[in-house]
Amino acid sequence: MPTRSILLLQENTAVGGIHTITQALADALRRAGHAPAALAVRGTPLRALLHAARQADLIVATNGFLPTYAAWLLGRLLRKPMVAWLHGPTQEVLEQARTSAAKRAWLRWLYRRLRWVVFVSSHARDSFLGFTGGATAGQRLEVIPNAHPAWQPVPVNAPPRHLGFVGRLAPEKQPELLVQALRLLPTAYRLCLVGDGPSQPALRAASADLQQAGRLALRPFQPVDAALYAPWQATVLASRYEGCPMAALESLAAGVPCVGLPIPALREMLEPDMPYALARECSAPALAQAVQAVCAMPREALAHDMARVLRRYSPERFAQGWLAVLQEAAC
């Protein structure tokens, strides 16, 4: 594939899972000899967007909403190929946001006209197809799972029954269910929630007794690395939906098992090799039981199974998948 200039259109500069994996894509492109450039749509003047798009051989929208709108329009105006990258399940995201019928109609119209769409999971692709009513003639839909970070686990003897969560404290992540599960666990269990978001004030008020007892700690968002996960015996997720959760991959890459609800994205990720890490149902009691089961497992068995999961989400497979898509899209 010849050297190409690739514009990665982001919604904003906020940190999080999408920002992390977009940076991973940019790094993979540089290693392959290409010239990626990231630009946030929000806060960038139209003239600057047009200039950046003119300089690019190909545009990648790193989010399925605003960046995709902008990339599609720029691609049409300048006759540049574009690829849309969808990180979440379309139908679930729109339902959570209570999207109006008018916006749904507009999105359906736009999504059916996208030539190339990359999804982070099969579930995200299937949700897209359910929303659009199926692929259109000539539309190329590719699943490229996110890559785990290439971390070396930090050698820390995590205290038994210390749990953690990293992510946005928002309704779709259901942090209140994590607190409910903590209340059902023996008092030796501790939980640290790392993140910010709209659910934080209510969560802080509703868990004051747990904080006072030293069982729950709320920490602001901080840069993510293996050392952040290392003090925990397990990372716990309670999301209503996910695409391909980076928090789960980061936790496994740090050598810490991840326990979650049996939502489609986590089933796709964990069920083949770590089915015991999924609660039997989407409830606090079931999540608490799964946590106890994982914390009681031998470390050697967990390490073996986590390595099997990580092999399916390797940076090499991620890079190869994207390079193949971009080569075809640019032709």
What is the topological layout?
Elements: E1 5-10, H1 17-31, E2 35-40, H2 46-55, E3 58-61, H3 66-78, E4 82-86, H4 90-96, H5 101-111, E5 116-119, H6 122-132, E6 140-143, E7 162-166, H7 175-184, E8 190-194, H8 200-206, H9 208-212, E9 216-219, H10 226-229, E10 234-236, H11 246-253, E11 258-259, H12 264-270, H13 284-295, H14 299-312, H15 315-330
Helix pairs in contact: 1-15, 7-13
Give a brief outline of the structure:
With 331 residues, the chain is of the alpha/beta class. The protein has two domains: 5-146 and 314-330, Glycogen Phosphorylase B (Rossmann fold, 3-Layer(aba) Sandwich), CATH 3.40.50; 162-312, 3-Layer(aba) Sandwich (Rossmann fold). The protein is built from 15 helices and eleven strands.
Description:
This protein is an alpha/beta fold and 331 residues long. It has two domains: 5-146 and 314-330, Rossmann fold (3-Layer(aba) Sandwich), CATH 3.40.50; 162-312, Rossmann fold (3-Layer(aba) Sandwich), CATH 3.40.50. The protein is 45% helix and 15% strand. The protein contains 15 helices and eleven strands. The protein has helices at residues 17-31, 46-55, 66-78, 90-96, 101-111, 122-132, 175-184, 200-206, 208-212, 226-229, 246-253, 264-270, 284-295, 299-312, 315-330, and strands at 5-10, 35-40, 58-61, 82-86, 116-119, 140-143, 162-166, 190-194, 216-219, 234-236, 258-259. Strands 2-1-3-4-5-6 form a six-stranded parallel β-sheet, with helices on both faces. Strands 9-8-7-10-11 form a five-stranded parallel β-sheet. Helix 1 packs across helix 15. The longest helix is centred in the C-terminal third of the chain and has 16 residues, at 315-330. It is globular, with a radius of gyration of 20 Å. The termini are close together. 41% of the residues are buried.
